[in-house]
């Protein structure tokens, strides 16, 4: 069994073991099998659009699963555009409009505790989605500290554990970013790699990542860098753009996260070393199932625990050029033709993807 299939099997087993969730409808699939939710509304509040996963995967996957499980349930989708105050207003509006459940991926994890308290005062449960919120009723995410460890381990391996590196972390207001950073430092700080510049990107912006990296080139020779830790693929793209602006596609190993299509293409082309793939379908569908069960009064017991909150913690997967075919392609996350456009045809052939 290849690595991906082994991890996926473990994840599937974990999901079944900790889920304990009765489907809203019968065992058959499709919206016709969905139980009536008496028009229950589930509010899905996502944090931003600069990271492509939210609009491309989380939203449609969540909505489709809700429709499958509960024909009469409605999803009220709201995106905060990286504005915590806007998200607060959206949450209050959703509650006023009669949401039965809030599924909340917070812009600011600490600020979101006020949303949790407001919802709970109205007897509306809150599912912290992807990012932890203290006091939430449930939490669904991946093992985020392990994500950082995987990135750090990959960078150590790719650099031969020697040389200078830059480190670009996520937003200080994102609770996941702190976990990624902690996991990465737990590996990098024990290695022989030397972090010569570190940056906490306030909104995960690829543009900010490019500007920071370019600013470092004013005092560091780009050719002297052994690698770059980028906490996600958007930032990895910004780092690559900064190197390209210096004169060519030759770059040191760069890490990433989210398995964005552009990142997979860069990996195939040797322009990014790795990404961390988090099977969003598992996360989004688990959240939808939980939300439907909460909205319709079904049993939701049988979860694990994370910092006192009943939780569903899923396994991330490291992706390099060697296992693109066995991970994101095998899982149907992308088709080969999505990755292997004309620009990447030769690289795909060399990687065995054509």
UniProtKB/TrEMBL annotation:
**InterPro entries (UniProt xref):** Bact_Solute-Bind_Prot2, Peripla_BP_I, SBP_2_dom
Recorded protein name is: Substrate-binding domain-containing protein
Keywords from UniProt, A to Z, are: Signal
Taxonomic placement: Bacteria, Bacillati, Actinomycetota, Actinomycetes, Micrococcales
GO CC terms in record: outer membrane-bounded periplasmic space
Q: What is a GO molecular function of this protein? A: carbohydrate binding
SUPFAM superfamilies named among the record's database cross-references: Periplasmic binding protein-like I (SSF53822)
Name where it's found. Answer: Cell envelope
Signal sequence extent: 1-22
Q: Which PROSITE patterns match?
A: PROKAR_LIPOPROTEIN
Q: Which organism is it from?
A: Leucobacter ruminantium
Principal localisation:
other
Periplasmic binding protein domain location, by residue? 42-299
């Amino acid at each position: 069994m290849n690595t991906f299939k082994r991890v996926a099997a473990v994840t599937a087993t974990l999901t079944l073991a900790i889920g304990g969730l009765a489907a809203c409808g019968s065992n058959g699939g499709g919206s016709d099998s969905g139980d009536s939710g008496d028009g229950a509304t589930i509010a899905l509040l996502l944090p931003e659009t600069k990271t492509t996963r939210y609009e491309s995967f989380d939203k449609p996957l969540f909505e489709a699963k809700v429709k499958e499980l509960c024909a009469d349930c409605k999803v009220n989708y709201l995106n905060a555009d990286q504005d915590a105050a806007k998200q607060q207003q959206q949450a209050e509006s959703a509650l006023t409009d009669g949401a039965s459940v809030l599924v909340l991926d917070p812009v600011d994890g600490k600020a979101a505790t006020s949303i949790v308290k407001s919802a709970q005062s109205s007897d509306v449960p809150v599912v912290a989605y992807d990012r932890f919120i203290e006091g939430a009723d449930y939490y669904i995410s991946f093992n985020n500290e392990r994500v950082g460890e995987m990135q750090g381990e990959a960078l150590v391996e790719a650099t031969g554990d020697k040389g200078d590196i830059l480190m670009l972390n996520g937003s200080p207001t994102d609770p996941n970013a702190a976990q990624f950073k902690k996991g990465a430092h737990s590996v990098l700080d024990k290695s022989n790699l030397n972090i010569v510049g570190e940056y906490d990107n306030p909104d995960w912006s690829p543009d900010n990542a490019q500007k920071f990296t370019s600013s470092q080139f004013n005092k560091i020779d780009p050719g002297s860098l052994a690698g770059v830790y980028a906490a996600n693929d958007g930032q990895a793209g910004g780092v690559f753009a900064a190197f390209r602006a210096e004169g060519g596609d030759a770059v040191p190993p760069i890490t990433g996260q989210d398995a964005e299509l552009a990142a997979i293409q860069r990996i195939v082309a040797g322009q990014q070393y790795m990404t961390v793939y988090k099977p969003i379908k598992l996360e989004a569908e688990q959240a939808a199932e939980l939300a439907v069960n909460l909205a319709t009064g079904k049993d939701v017991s049988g979860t694990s625990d994370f910092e006192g909150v009943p939780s569903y913690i899923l396994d991330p997967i490291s992706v390099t050029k060697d296992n693109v075919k066995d991970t994101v392609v095998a899982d149907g996350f992308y088709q080969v033709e999505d990755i292997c456009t004309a620009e990447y045809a030769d690289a795909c052939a060399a990687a065995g993807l054509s």
